[in-house]
Amino acid sequence: FKSVIVPTRPFDDQKPGTSGLRKRVTVFQQQNYTENFVQAILNSLGDDLQGSVLVLGGDGRYYVKDAAKLIIRICAANGVKKLIVGQHGIFSTPAVSNLIRKRNTSGGIILTASHNPGGPDKDFGIKFNTDNGGPAPDYVTAEIFNITVGLESYNIVPDLECDIDTQGVYTYIVDGNEFNVEVVDSVADYVGLMKEIFDFDSLRELLKGSEGRKPFKILIDSMNGVTGPYVRQIFVNELGADESSIVNTKPLEDFGGLHPDPNLTYAVQLVDAMKEGIHDFGAAFDGDGDRNMILGKKAFFVTPSDSLAVLGAHLHHIPYFKITGIKGFARSMPTAGAIDRVASATGIDFYEVPTGWKFFGSLMDADQLSLCGEESFGTGSDHIREKDGIWAALAWLQVIACEKKGVEELLVSHWKKFGRNFFTRYDYENCPADNCAYMLHKLEQIVTSPVYIGTQIIHRNKSYVVKQADNFCYEDPIDGSLTPKQGIRLLFEDGSRIIVRLSGTGSSGATVRIYVDSYEKDERLILKDAQVCHYTFMWVV
Ligand code: VG1
Ligand code: CO
């Protein structure tokens, strides 16, 4: 095979956001659009590109297969030595992170727009993960963007065909050099990892029931995203759950019309089924398998911030952490502060990082962090460098198996011990970008004026006094790098907080997110509804 150099013109909108480049499919289908971005990713590898090994796969959404075939041809023409590709082009995001680490590759390309809807007129995305298995840090994505705006050509082997539907190693000679594509089982390595982390025997016993203990009924919803095959292998084949315990397990290009975002709004099918009270535990995952929602009996909802805190308080039950020890806890800045209280009670180190999983990676690489999470239904640990939906569900089941308590019971006893952080998030989607930027700028001016500190707000007979207000700037404790302007923070004296920031994952317009986190330690008040508590509070502010 011979590679060719194709002249192109640069695009000015290929700036990766919180987690990769996300646009409408039709944008990626423009002539040279996908080619340019992939070439820029490869160029960013610099001297490491020649002879490199990369992982490639995606969440099965529309355009994944086309893009995968294109990427194989572009990698072949750029001196990549080998690509490890998931069969049918399928890999969950956690599975890619695992393979990068397990096979020591230079990185991986993940084809996903995560929880955004899929289909010909919906979203697609390309994300680059570096050799630690995590999303590329800001300096790498900035470099990729710089390359895109000046790109004049890309390299490709136009007639190279690879059958990614059949497992095996395919060898090609490109410009006199060997190029390999290894098409692998998409689930095997990931399932192997889960079996190393958890005690599958005890989970099997939990689900089956034992003397004096009823079977523990679960309901797992893959929302027609990538986790289907993983869920089937783990929960049915390995743990012995029956077929009716798993739903929407066929990855579909348009997710069957579902919006594959595991929350109370979009995972309504799971919520309704759980309300019937037959199942003890429910979980749903997003399109690419890194997000999770956990429900208890009768659809008792666990906020992701609480999920993180409860897992933190019981992490010692998970065999993996018995070996590694618990090195530290972390959450993203807008996530409610429930884990903070577990950290201070246990004396375990705690970190607060900006939104987006990439910031946890450097702490994990430095052995400072074991468990972390985000309010946006993200939970994970240092077993990989991405959040991990299935891992979170298994972690909950492991805690339940050891504590012998249900989901709601675990939460209520947690609140009684630590107090409760009431958390809500409000999203305002598709707003005009310029106006939103101006609004944040004005807001920053107001809250950073010296007179703002000490402002008192009275809501429902409770007074909140502003202790600190700023635009969050993160200093990475490992490399000292600064990441400024990560969101406006109003911090109140009792630990309650209001955060305002702009989303970095939308595919059009701007999304404003407002996060409200208030703390209550009065036992008589901890069982209230978070929405009711916050709605008026927000407007008073
Ligand atoms: C959102 C979430 C953030 C998450 C990111 C990627 O980002 O708020 O917590 O890390 O999505 O998740 P933003 O910038 O829109 O707020 V996923 O499942 O898309 O990889
Ligand atoms: Co996701």
From TrEMBL:
Residues 14-148, 203-295, 325-418 form the Alpha-D-phosphohexomutase alpha/beta/alpha domain. GO terms for cellular component: cytosol. The keyword Transport does not apply. Keywords: Carbohydrate metabolism, Glucose metabolism, Isomerase, Magnesium, Metal-binding, Phosphoprotein. Its EC number is 5.4.2.2. GO terms for molecular function: magnesium ion binding; phosphoglucomutase activity. Gene3D superfamilies: Alpha-D-Glucose-1,6-Bisphosphate, subunit A, domain 3 (3.40.120.10), Alpha-D-phosphohexomutase, C-terminal domain (3.30.310.50). Pfam families: PGM1_C_vert_fung, PGM_PMM_I, PGM_PMM_II, PGM_PMM_III. One of its GO terms (biological process) is glucose metabolic process. It comes from the Eukaryota. Its cofactor is Mg(2+). PANTHER family: PHOSPHOGLUCOMUTASE, PHOSPHOHEXOMUTASE FAMILY MEMBER. Belongs to the phosphohexose mutase family. This is phosphoglucomutase (alpha-D-glucose-1,6-bisphosphate-dependent). It comes from Zootermopsis nevadensis.
